[in-house]
Structures are given as C-alpha cells and as structure tokens.
C-alpha cells in the first residue's frame, strides 16, 4: 500500500482529513497433548483501517486487502457511507502531538521451537507426577504474539509502536474416582530458560486439587471476598461505565454522577496506559493522542470520565487519550487502558482473618450474559471456598452470587494488597464485601 | 481466490513432507454494520476480511499457518515453516484437484451489496420508530443492521476443490424504558442466512416492538427469588439450555480428548426419554446453515439424542482420527485466522406432545423463563450457567409476576434427565457461539420444556 498515494487521493476526492491505521501481527503457537506436539500455528496478518472526515462526517472502512488497485473503489465507498450518517456528532482526525515516550520494562527473548517443545514435554511430566489424583494435562500451549501499530494521517502524523508477549498456558484435570475438576494457569514468560516450572505446576495443580470435594452452600447473605481474579473480571465487565461516550449518550449507569460519591471511600480507580508494571503499554491511543495517568475515582468520588476525541467534543472537553480500537477493524471506541483499583494493606490471608466466617469467590462464569450493564444488577455462577473462623474450611461450587455492582461497591469492608498484572489490562486486588446474596442449596 | 494450478502447486509442496494430508482454506468476506441511536445514523462500517489458511496433518498432529497475503512470495515461506514443524521429507508429491459442483441450498434474493444505503437505514428507522411508538416510557433505542457475505474456497490433497458463499443478515434492537429514574432495557436480535428479503417475513417493526415490550416488562419486574425450583423454559432462544448444557460437551473437540462428561456414552441414555435433539446445518437459509462445512464437506443433519439415547457426536476430521470415527461435517471456524474444529450449526430439541398449559400443572413455586440471555459451560465438568432475560414467577400453577436478574445453573449430565415435559411449539433463535475456532453464527432452539429441580440464582434476599 502506497499510503501517501491513498491520502492524496482521498484529499482530492473531498476529504478534509484522512488517516491510515495499520496493525501488523505475527504469531507462533505450539500446543502439546499426550506426550507430543498437538498443533503448531504460525501467522502474519496486516490489517488496515481507514478513517476520513468529509462534510463533517467520519467515514470508516477496514480491509485486509490493501492493494493500491482497490484505492478508488474503497475511498468511493467511504464517501457514500459518510453521506448516510445523520448523527450531529463530530469526529476529528488528530494533528500530531509531541509527548515524552516511555519504554516497557519487559524484554521478551524468543526461544527456539525445540526449546519450547522440551519445556512443554517437561512441564507436562511434572504436572502428571505432581499428585496421583492428576488425571490429564488437558491442554498446554506456548504462544508468542508480536504486534506493530502504525498511524499515518494527512496532518503528517507518523506514530509507530509495537509490543510482544510470550505466554505459557496449561490446563489440568484432577479426579478422585467420584468427581472430576479442572483448572488452568497462564504466565507471561520473558525468558523461557529462566521460567520457574515448579512454581507454575504447583499453582496449577493445587488450584485444581482444591476444587475436589466441593459442595454447594445454603442460600443466604454472606460476607464475601472477591479474590483478585474474579474481582478483576467483574470490574472489567462494568468498566465501560466510566466511558464519556456512553455517559454522553445517557447509556451509562453513571449518567450525571461526575463529582459525586459512587463507591466506598476505600476505592480509588486509576487509568494509566503508561503503567510499566502492566502487560500493555501505550504512549498514544489509537487516534495518536498522547496518553497519561488519571484518577478516575478518588476515594469513592467519580472524578474523571474517559474520552476519545469524538466523545470529548460532544461534551465540550478534551480527549483523555482513551480512544482505542477493539481490533484493527473496529471504530475508535472509548476504552480504559491499564485501569486498576488501588491496592490496600492486607494480604488475602489477612482479609480472610478479618472476614471470620464467609465465602471467597475465586471464579465467576457467564459474565457476558448474567449482568445488566444499565442497572448494574448481576447474578452469576461462581465457585470458591468457605472460610470459617478466618481459615479455609471447604471448597464450594454450583452457587450463584447476585447483587447490584454500584450498591456492592459502596459496601466495602477492606481492599487487599494483592494487585497483580496479568494479560488483561483491567485489574483489581481482592476485595472484602459486607454482604452478598448467594443461591445454592 | 487462487487458481486451480496455483493450489495444486501449493498442495504438492505441502505434501512433500511427512504430512499425510494438506488443506488450503481461502476466504473473502465483506461485512457491513450500520448503527442508529434514537433515529440518527451513527456509524456505517465496512470490513473486508481476506486471507488464506494452510493446514497439514500427520496422524493426529496438525500444523496451521495463515496470512492475509496469498502471493507466492508470502505463501511459500509459510509452507516451509509448516514443513519444518511437521517434518521435512524428500518425497515427491503431486495433487490433482477436481472441482465439486452442487446446487446452492441457501439462495439469496436481495443482495445487500447492491442495495442503496438509504434502504438499509430505512430498516433501522422502522425498527426505531416502532419501538418508540410502543410506549411513552421508551426513551432511547439503539438499532444495528449487520450484513455479511463470506466467499470461501477449500482445496485439499485428496483432490477436492469446492466453494461456498454464505450470506447472513441480522437486525438488532435494544430499547431503554425509563420510569421515575428506573432505566431498564430489552432487546431482540433475529437473523437468517438470507439477504434483505428476510425483513419481509420478520419485519423491523416486530423487532422494535419486541425490544420495547421486554424493556417495559423489566420496568415492573421484581427481584427474582433464589433456590432450587421447577423452571419452564419457553421456545426459540430458550434452547440455549441445550446448547450449553449438552451441545458443547458433544463436540469432538472435548469428546476426543476425554474432556467431556459424555465421552464414551454413545448408545447410552443421557437424557429423559422425552428428549430428542438434532444439530442440522442443512436448514434452508437458517442463521447457522451453510452448504459445506469449513473442511469442504457437505453439511448434514445430525441426530444427537433419540428418545434420551446418545446417538451421535459432532465430529471434525482431525478429532475423528483421534476417535477412530468419520467426520460428521461439523468443522467450522470464524475466519481463516482460526484452525477449524467441531462446532454446532442449528441445534435444537425436537417437538414433544405436551400442551403448553400442561407444563404449569402441579408447579407450586417455579420460574417461567420466557426469554433467555446467553450462557456458558465447562464441558469437562458439565457445569453450566445461563441468564434469564424475561422471567415470571409461577405460583400454584399460575404465572403471577415478572422477575429480573435470574441466572440458572446446573450440571449438564443431570439436567437432561430433569426435563420431564416437552411441548410442541418448536422455534429457533439466533446467537453467536464462541469457542476454540472463534465466534460463529448458530441457531439454538426448542419447544417449551419443563425442567424440575434447577438452581435459580436471584437477587431477592429470600
């Protein structure tokens, strides 16, 4: 694709400004099953997204065929599409802005395929040898992905960056004759030769073995610790409530709530695309707007809405550098990047002691369906363990937890210290809540 | 799409290795999404997906490469990578392809690509206006029209060369109702493997009105009580219970590796005798239908359960090798970026002979789930969950009041035995199913059924 040619042609056809966004991704995955390589996947994909402002309307188009021979056809279609838009919302293509760029802390060393296979074979054996109740290593996978992002526009913007990640994933099935349980674990691996295989295997197997003998729980209201993984996924499911786009359209549960107390004063939420502890790092958002750290919720008070250029224009403010795509082909949405709840003082064990009797929820299922974003009501399948007199008592399964997210976040007893950055860019520590409805027996 | 000569050359190159099978999947897809908020067109987005996926097998090992570039300079290095992974060999190979012709079972009347945008935005406006006209309490309406045309060409080292064009359309509406600051939503999302002619039979007005109706019911719904109770699940999207509780665990992806509660259960009773179920990828112009699966085999109707007895799994070629069984033409994938595997198409419980009213007889306290949301399952343990979008309490055999916030959970191997009545009002509903090979269109379906003893998770503190 001759980008200069495309931009010049678009301007000639009447576009006021024009942007070309490209995402070039490469992947290598080796999976392992039953003592041998199961699958090997390699890929190279370049996705191109075009945005252009014409007659005050933003036209968008994405293509994986970016041959110059399609230029006239695709740009012609964009003009037609823009003419169909009747919304008064204005979009903008941004002018280049200077920012101090920071670099990621992590350095990933690419291993040879043979070294990956040796590691997978060895870890599989260690899992099988860990405990006689281990029935099967259900899946194992080494995955490495490299992504490069390039944003070019008619104002001379030329943002280029990229990231790489390497992940080890494994799943295990355990059983004791009467029942079967499973679990999985994943870790970011910077240098495979230094990867702590024993720690990985122990974490995976103990998580699965602890589920054996799990029972339901009598329905009722319990004190609950949402363990960091479960809490992160629940917070993530409601994270769009801070979107200036949804608030501007009246489609967020936080409509008209800016400046007011929405959570317990124990809760502070930060959005920081430049957090070097996190897995992803972005000096610019997907519109080329420089990113920065912001306090979204300060001691329970809703301080900052997140914006991209369009949502900011609608509310007469500035973009917060949160214009991100959910894939190269999507429009630029308002999305948090490295958003987290600030950690407290206590470890999970100390939270359990503080709770005395209650439930620790380790996993939630059905998050895509079992919650109402507008009312923030949710009812979700969950599993975990019961704590009695501050100590782990027994494993719990096949129960549901139901509440209202905004109400629950006002009724926080304590916030844990175990904030940990994993693959997702929205994370929280474990949090102890005063009373949540549990349905079981 | 590549020429036959080019494909033969690539396949021969692939087979000059330790591979015993090679396949090339080519795809060109155009999807168009138009969205409207309260009568104003907000976005029109066209996405062109175009690429190639190459797969080699050696016994039960597979290696897969994909790229959006299909020129020789890009493809040959990918093939070399694959040969390196599966094992190089000096053997000479040649492949002769023969094109398989067939009659398209899913003809399309109105091509969305040839339809002016104004006619498509009119469809959205009609749904929008119908929702607003339903009631003064409807304050916002979001509508989205999705049109997709996917061309695929599949060739393999057995000499098969076959193509398919899949056209799909879906109209989605979400209505928001507000009464004294209580904001509730409701939605409707019908779709089909058709062109825009679909909206003659399922009109945009129906979609808008149904979304508004559900939102209005939720305005007056009370919190759902919790506990174990009898649940009557209505037809159409209610079939998500079978999809989650049983369907996923019958896919060879889980079964072949002994990771399903139903592994080794062929010929055994796994459901109450009133339950028979099929997965049918051949239904004319259905949302989950296609002429061929993504390995190039003609789609089929698979009887999964007959009178409670497990009669078939859903099997793709690779997992079939592991199981020592033939493919059931169940191999599907979202796009060339995914290696295909066994997936559902249009999956539903067949009609029984109970009358709808009979389902309620003798139910002292229960839940009538009129509309379901989505759900998920762990095939290994069989534990599933799904959300109720519109529900009503049943007291002493009668529907009493609407409830919201209910989730149903259980174990697939138990729940199928707890279906004690199956009605005769079979309908299907449309969904997107996510699994190993991506997000694909599937129909779920059933007549109304009664399930005794299922755990209902609700928000009411009872």
Describe this structure in words.
Chain A is of the alpha+beta class and 441 residues long. Chain A has a domain at 220-235 and 343-439. In chain A, 20% of the residues lie in helices and 37% in strands. Chain A has helices at 3-12, 71-84, 113-130, 197-209, 228-237, 244-248, 309-314, 348-355, 405-408; strands spanning 17-33, 36-54, 57-63, 134-153, 158-175, 180-188, 220-226, 269-271, 294-298, 301-302, 323-324, 333-334, 339-341, 358-365, 377-388, 391-404, 412-415, 426-427, 431-439. In chain A, the strands form 4 sheets. A 6-stranded antiparallel sheet of chain A has the order 3-2-1-4-5-6. A 5-stranded mixed β-barrel of chain A has the order 7-14-15-16-19. In chain A, strands 10-9-8-13-18 form a 5-stranded mixed sheet, with helices on one face. The longest helix of chain A is centred in the first third of the chain and has 18 residues, at 113-130. The model of chain A has no long low-confidence stretch (mean pLDDT 95). With 462 residues, chain B is of the alpha+beta class. Chain B has 2 domains: 112-151 and 162-220, PmbA/TldD fold (2-Layer Sandwich); 227-457, no CATH class. In chain B, 19% of the residues lie in helices and 41% in strands. Chain B has helices at 4-15, 72-86, 117-134, 198-201, 204-220, 240-247, 252-255, 317-323, 412-415, and strands spanning 21-37, 40-58, 61-67, 98-99, 138-156, 160-179, 182-188, 191-192, 222-223, 227-233, 277-280, 301-306, 309-310, 331-332, 341-342, 346-349, 365-377, 383-395, 398-404, 407-411, 419-422, 427-435, 438-446, 449-457. In chain B, strands 1, 2, 3, 4, 5, 6, 7 and 8 form an 8-stranded mixed sheet that branches. In chain B, a hairpin with a 2-residue loop joins strand 6 (160-179) and strand 7. The longest helix of chain B has 18 residues, at 117-134. The radius of gyration of chain B is 24 Å and the shape is globular. At the A-B interface, strand 2, strand 3, helix 2, strand 6 and strand 15 of A face strand 1, strand 2, strand 3, helix 2 and helix 3 of B. Strand 3 of chain A pairs parallel with strand 2 (40-58) of chain B, so a sheet runs across the interface.
């Amino acid at each position: 694709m001759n980008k200069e040619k495309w931009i010049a042609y678009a301007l000639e056809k009447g576009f006021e400004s024009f942007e070309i966004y490209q995402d070039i991704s490469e992947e290598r995955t080796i999976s392992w099953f039953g003592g041998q390589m199961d699958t090997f996947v390699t890929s190279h994909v370049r996705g191109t997204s075009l945005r252009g402002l014409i007659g005050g309307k933003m036209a968008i188009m994405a293509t994986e065929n970016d041959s110059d021979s399609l230029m006239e056809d695709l740009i012609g279609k964009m003009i037609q599409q823009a003419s169909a838009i009747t919304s008064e919302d204005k979009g903008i293509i941004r002018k280049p802005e200077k920012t101090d760029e920071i670099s990621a802390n992590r350095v990933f060393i690419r291993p040879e395929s043979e070294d990956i296979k040796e590691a997978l074979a060895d870890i599989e054996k260690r899992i099988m040898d860990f405990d006689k109740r281990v029935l099967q290593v259900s899946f194992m996978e080494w995955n490495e992905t490299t992504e490069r992002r390039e944003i070019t526009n008619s104002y001379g913007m030329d943002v280029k960056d990229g990231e790489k990640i390497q992940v080890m994933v494994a799943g295990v099935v355990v059983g004791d004759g009467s029942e079967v349980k499973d679990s999985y674990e994943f870790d970011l691996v910077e240098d495979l030769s230094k990867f702590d295989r024993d720690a990985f295997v122990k974490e995976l197997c103990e998580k699965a073995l602890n589920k054996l003998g799990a029972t339901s729980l009598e329905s009722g209201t319990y004190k609950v610790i949402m363990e960091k993984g479960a809490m992160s996924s629940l917070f993530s499911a409601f994270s769009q409530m801070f979107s200036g786009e949804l608030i501007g359209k009246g489609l967020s549960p936080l409509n008209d709530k800016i400046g007011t107390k929405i959570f317990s004063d124990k809760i502070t939420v930060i959005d920081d695309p430049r957090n070097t502890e996190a897995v992803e790092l972005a000096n610019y958002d997907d519109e080329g707007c420089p990113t920065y750290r912001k306090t979204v919720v300060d001691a329970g008070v809703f301080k900052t809405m997140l914006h991209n250029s369009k949502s900011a224009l609608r509310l007469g403010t500035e973009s917060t550098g949160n214009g991100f795509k959910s894939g190269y082909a999507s429009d630029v949405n308002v999305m948090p990047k490295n958003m987290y709840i600030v950690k407290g003082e206590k470890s999970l064990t100390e939270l359990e002691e503080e709770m005395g009797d209650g439930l620790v929820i380790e996993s939630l299922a059905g998050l895509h369906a079992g919650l109402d974003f507008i009312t923030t009501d949710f009812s979700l399948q969950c599993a975990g363990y019961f704590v009695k007199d501050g100590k782990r008592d027994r494993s719990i399964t096949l129960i549901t937890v139901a509440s209202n997210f905004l109400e629950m976040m006002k009724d926080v007893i304590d916030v844990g210290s175990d904030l940990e950055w994993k693959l997702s860019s929205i994370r929280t520590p474990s949090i102890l809540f005063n009373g949540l409805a549990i349905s079981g027996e | 799409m590549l020429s036959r000569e080019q494909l033969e050359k690539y396949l021969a190159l692939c087979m000059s290795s330790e591979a015993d099978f090679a396949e090339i999947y080519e795809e060109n897809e155009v999807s168009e999404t138009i969205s409207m908020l309260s009568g104003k067109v907000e976005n029109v987005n066209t996405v062109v997906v175009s690429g190639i996926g190459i797969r080699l097998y050696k016994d039960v090992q597979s290696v897969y490469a994909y790229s959006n570039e299909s020129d020789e300079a890009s493809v040959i290095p990918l093939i070399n990578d694959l040969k390196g992974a599966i094992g190089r060999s000096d053997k000479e190979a040649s492949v002769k392809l023969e094109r398989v012709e067939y009659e398209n079972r899913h003809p399309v009347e109105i091509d969305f690509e040839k339809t002016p945008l104004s006619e498509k935005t009119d469809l959205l406006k009609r749904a929008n206006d119908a929702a607003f006209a339903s009631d003064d309490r409807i304050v916002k309406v979001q509508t989205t029209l999705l049109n997709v045309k996917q061309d695929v060409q599949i060739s393999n080292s057995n000499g098969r060369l076959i193509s398919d064009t899949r056209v799909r359309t879906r109209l989605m509406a979400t209505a928001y109702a507000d009464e004294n600051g209580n904001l509730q939503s409701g939605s409707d999302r019908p779709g089909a493997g058709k062109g825009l002619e679909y909206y003659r039979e399922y009109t945009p007005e129906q979609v808008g009105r149904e979304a508004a109706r559900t939102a209005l019911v939720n305005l007056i719904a009370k919190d759902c009580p919790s506990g174990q109770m009898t649940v009557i699940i209505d037809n159409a999207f209610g079939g998500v219970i079978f999809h989650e509780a049983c369907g996923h665990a019958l896919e060879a992806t889980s079964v072949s590796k002994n990771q399903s509660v139903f592994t080794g259960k062929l010929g055994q009773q796994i459901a109450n005798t009133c339950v028979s179920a099929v997965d049918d990828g051949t239904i004319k112009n259905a949302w989950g239908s296609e002429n061929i699966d993504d390995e190039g085999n003609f789609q089929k109707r698979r009887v999964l359960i007959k009178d409670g007895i497990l009669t078939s799994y859903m099997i793709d070629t690779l997992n079939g090798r592991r199981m020592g069984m033939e493919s059931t033409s169940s191999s599907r994938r979202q796009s060339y970026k995914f290696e295909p595997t066994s997936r559902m198409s249009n999956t539903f419980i067949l009609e029984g002979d109970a009358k709808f009213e009979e389902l309620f007889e003798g139910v002292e306290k229960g839940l009538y789930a009129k509309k379901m949301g989505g759900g998920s399952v762990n095939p290994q343990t069989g534990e599933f969950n799904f959300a109720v979008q519109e529900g009503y309490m049943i007291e002493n055999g009668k529907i009493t009041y609407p409830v919201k916030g209910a989730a149903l959970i259980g174990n697939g191997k138990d729940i199928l035995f707890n279906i004690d009545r199956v009605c005769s009002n079979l309908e299907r509903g449309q969904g997107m199913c996510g699994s190993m090979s991506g997000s694909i269109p599937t129909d779920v379906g059933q007549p109304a059924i009664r399930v005794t003893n299922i755990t209902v998770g609700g928000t009411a503190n009872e």
